[in-house]
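Now read the record:
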Amino acid sequence: MPRHLTEVEIRTELEPVAATNVNRHESVAPRWNPHDYVPWDRGRNFARTGGADWSPEQSQLSDVARAAMITNLLTEDNLPSYHREAAEHFSLDDAWGAWVGRWTAEENRHGIALRDYLVVTRAVDPVELEQARMQHVANGFGATAEEEARHKTDFLLSVAYVTFQELATRVSHRNTGKVCNDPIANQLLKRIAADENLHMIFYRNVCGAALDLVPDQALEAVADVVEHFRMPGQGMPNFRRNGVLMAKHGIYDPRQHLDEVVRPTLRKWRIFERDDFSFQGEQRREQLATYLEGLERQVIRFEEQRDRRLARAERNREVKAG
């Protein structure tokens, strides 16, 4: 029969795992500096210091790349909320505190580098960007009313969530770099994506250890995250519009979410091969499998609708050109 432990007991038993993985992260994470990824020679003063303020024609990014860059940056900007969540659920003691501090510093570096690049290259309107940052950070990020109603705001849920979220963010950053049509932006976003992958590995290893320690409890957290996943940028200004644009152009779409984030992570944890769940755990696993089958059908419908829209748009362009 699988063990059932309290949140404090789980965190205490997993502290050596966290310590091992903090040490591992520090040994493999490369040192890099934001200023090395910013083309400073493209910069010039704005009106207050004798130059000219931003205008749309100054941006060399496409609408898709601009929407993705803004979404990625505003997501990083909400770091104070993420830090609060991490400090609350992981604690600031021992290895957990060491990790929260290291992770926070690295995520802050991402925001610094992205903002410097966007402002220096005049890729986005800096006034609108700052207004959006103020609004998004002021709103914060935390459990929704639905999540609180399900009483799913605990340690295991947090570890499971950030595992999927960090991997999703890696995919989004990497694909954003590919559409920027700028080798400097591409290198910057590759660097950030590599960091996000290292963060994901830390959380994935901790969650994997939790599955060994308390299989049923950890499975419940994993399944709950998969079935109710939301990106951390949800709630930022224009999030829905930008998200649709990013999905339409393959930066982060339902197929990528399923095939590049959800399925590989579940395979890594051997969710559907494990034999250490109780009868109740096996029932929960079956429920998760049913959900994934439904998600696959949703993905196929999305792809079919997207293909029809793209084909229609192409026909319209041909008619206008002809």
About this structure: Residues 279-321 form the longest helix (43 residues). The two ends are 71 Å apart (CA to CA). The CA atoms of residues 190 and 287 lie 36 Å apart. The chain has a mean pLDDT of 93.
